Amino acid sequence: MILRNLRRGFSLVELMVAVALFAFMAGGLAAFYGMAFGSQYRRFADVGVANGATLVRRSFDYALGSATYIQDPSTGTAADLLTVWTNLDADGASPLVAGAPVRYTTLCLDASSLTVYSYQGGFPKVDFACGQSPAGVSRDILAGGPGFREARLVFYRPEPNLVQMTCALDITDARGIAHAAQVQAQATTSSHGQN
User: Fold this and answer.
1) Residue in 154, 76, 70 with CA at minimum distance from that of residue 104
2) Which of 67, 60, 73, 70 is CA-nearest to residue 186?
3) Are strands 81-86 and 115-122 parallel, antiparallel or unpaired?
4) Pairing state between β 103-110 and 81-86
5) Is residue 25 classed as helix, strand or coil in its secondary structure?
6) pTM score
7) Is 93 helix (H, G, I), strand (E, B) or coil?
8) CA distances (Å), origin 2, targets 45, 63, 113
9) Cα separation of 66 and 68, whole Å?
């Protein structure tokens, strides 16, 4: 007579060992992916904050590179607002080149939303508060916004044709990790007169 193994399937001990091995491997993979993607997430946050600060600096350089008249801040003062004009004479009222457009660029910080804006428009300048969207004026967000815990923007004008800028941005990500960036720049205008 031939003896048959009537036992089919796995024993309880074999099943428990297999489940324990699977759980151990799954836990190891979860830890590995958490570490790998966590550092990548931190890098993305660092790069995002640094890019925002760099964009503010480049906008500052561009605005002053073509400026012929500095309206704000006044000489010897500091402010969170910079307004410069292209093709505007030192009197602040007439174009340098007749028939060419007179345009302004304003860089400012909306302290309530921690957002840095760039506005561009034509002459005459429309009055508006930073963060608003006035008609006929181009508004761009350069940096900041939801999630930022601090944003500082300071323009200092020690001489009539020299402006210094400091921009500091700070964000705390969903994991509670702080990411910060700061840029400083200064630029001069070739203008022959400002207020």
Assistant:
1) 70
2) 60
3) unpaired
4) antiparallel
5) helix
6) 0.75
7) coil
8) 70, 95, 84
9) 7
Q: Three-state DSSP class for 53?
A: helix
**Residue 158 CB contacts under 8 Å (≥ 6 apart), including other chains:** 75, 76, 164
Cα separation, 64 vs 61, whole angstroms: 5
CB 151 within 8 A of CB 175: no
DSSP state of 6: -
- 50 with 131: CB under 8 angstroms? no
At 165 the three-state DSSP class reads: strand
- C-alpha gyration radius of the chain: 29
Give the CA-trace dihedral at 92, 116, 153, 114, to 10 degrees: 140
pLDDT in tens, the chain (195 residues): 565 656 677 788 888 888 888 888 888 877 777 666 666 667 777 888 888 899 999 999 999 998 999 999 999 999 999 999 999 888 878 888 888 899 999 999 999 999 999 999 998 888 999 999 999 999 999 998 887 888 899 999 999 889 999 999 888 776 777 888 888 888 887 664 555
